[in-house]
Structure to design on (270 residues):
């Protein structure tokens, strides 16, 4: 939408629009800032699943934390979080053995949700792995801060395990789309014989804009350790999406495999 507004021959009148609710994927801070500064529109992030009867948490720019009220950048970073649970909803995080983890903003675990209207079984089908006691397993990896803010790390299936450490594809994607001229970025894991997996970024540019791989690497290096940076950056015309509008990473991985893709260091070794 940002690219459409900027390139539209007749800029639409959004003077009566005061806020937008974003869901399905965490909005990059750069996008939230653009809406606020260019359009005066507040970006609100909401998080939930069909099984939670829609919204389970919400995060707004007007933070309840007094220390953020005078710092716009911190406010924007704050709404990039999934937010606090709405009334009636409980959230928790657990490790692989379902041991509860501290809500200290440091520990990553699978996010669990429960509440009076949260699904606890599926109609005419059994999915016991989708539940743990009275908790719904979301399949999302998250931290929970001491004040209750949920910070999504990634989908469990989309995390990249490299050398025994986890890399968040979503965080890298958000950093990449913060580069001017980039329309979309998709980061997926590719197999590596030594490190298990390494990240690869597929990037879609805005029409008529030039961005180099080096510019993207410099941007990523500002936010991530060297071992977390993508091993390869591939410029593509488009990225496949699912019926719900999310990037179809399963299709992306399948296409790379069918194309016989190899990581740069493996390519050179051959």
């Amino acid at each position: 939408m940002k690219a459409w507004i900027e390139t539209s021959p007749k800029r639409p009148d959004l003077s009566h629009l005061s806020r937008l609710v974003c869901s399905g994927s965490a909005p990059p801070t750069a996008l939230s800032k653009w809406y606020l500064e260019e359009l005066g529109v507040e970006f609100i992030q909401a998080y939930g699943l069909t099984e939670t009867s829609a919204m389970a948490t919400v995060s707004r720019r007007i933070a309840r934390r007094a220390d953020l009220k005078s710092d716009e950048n911190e406010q924007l970073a704050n709404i990039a979080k999934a937010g606090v649970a709405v009334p009636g909803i409980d959230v928790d995080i657990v490790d692989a053995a379902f041991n509860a983890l501290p809500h200290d903003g440091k520990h990553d675990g699978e996010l669990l949700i429960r509440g009076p209207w949260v699904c606890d079984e599926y109609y005419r089908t059994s999915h016991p792995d989708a539940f743990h006691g009275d908790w719904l397993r979301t399949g999302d990896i998250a931290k929970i801060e001491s004040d209750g803010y949920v910070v999504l790390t990634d989908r469990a299936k989309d995390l990249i395990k490299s050398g025994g450490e986890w890399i968040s594809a979503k965080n890298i994607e958000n950093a990449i789309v913060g580069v001017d001229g980039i329309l979309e970025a998709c980061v997926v894991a590719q197999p590596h014989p030594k490190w298990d997996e390494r990240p690869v970024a597929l990037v879609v540019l805005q029409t008529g804009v030039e961005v180099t791989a080096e510019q993207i690497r410099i941007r990523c290096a500002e936010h991530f350790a060297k071992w977390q940076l993508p091993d390869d950056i591939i410029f593509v015309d488009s990225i496949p999406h699912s019926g719900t509008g999310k990037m179809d990473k399963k299709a992306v991985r399948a296409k790379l495999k069918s194309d016989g893709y190899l990581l740069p260091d493996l390519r050179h070794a051959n």
The first strand starts at residue 19 and ends at 22. DSSP finds seven helices and 14 strands in the chain.
